[in-house]
Amino acid sequence: MISRRLFLTGTAAAATASAVALTYSAQGASASAATCEIALENKSLPGKVNAYVTGHEQGTNRWVLLRADGSVYHP
């Protein structure tokens, strides 16, 4: 069983910018890119880190969720 201290330490580490490094690269600053690249890297405790990637679609303002396989889901 995980201790409360370890859980809180892991939660705090996951919430910091150093825990998960996001790399975002777009094709151009003047035009909206059709896609972007996101790389998640676990620099905290060993083991698995869950990430939820969400956003709004430009033009329609609908919610967009990214699935584990990289496909897009519109709820």
Give the structure's gist in a few sentences.
It comes from Streptomyces beijiangensis. The chain has one domain (4-73). Helix content is 16%, strand content 28%.
Structure characterization notes:
By secondary structure, the chain is of the alpha+beta class. It has one domain (4-73). It has one helix and five strands; from the N terminus they run H-E-E-E-E-E. It has one helix at 4-15, and strands spanning 20-25, 37-42, 54-56, 63-66, 72-73. A three-stranded antiparallel β-sheet has the order 3-4-5, with no helix packed on it. A two-stranded antiparallel sheet has the order 1-2. This is Sugar hydrolase. InterPro entries: TAT_signal. It comes from Streptomyces beijiangensis.
Order of helices and strands: HEEEEE
Largest sheet: 3 strands, antiparallel
**Low-confidence region ranges:** 15-30
Distance between the first and last residues' Cα: 35 Å
For the record, the count of structural domains works out to 1
How are the strands ordered across the major sheet? Answer: 3-4-5
Quaternary state, please? single chain
Radius of gyration based on Cα positions: 16 Å
Q: Would you tell me the structural class of the helices and strands?
A: alpha+beta
Mean pLDDT: 68
Give the overall shape, derived from the CA principal axes. elongated
Percent of residues in helices: 10-25%
Q: Tell me the total number of β-strands.
A: 5
Count of helices? Answer: 1
Tell me the fraction of residues in β-strands, as a range: 25-35%
Signal peptide: 1-21
Protein name: Sugar hydrolase
GO molecular function: hydrolase activity
Keywords: Hydrolase, Signal
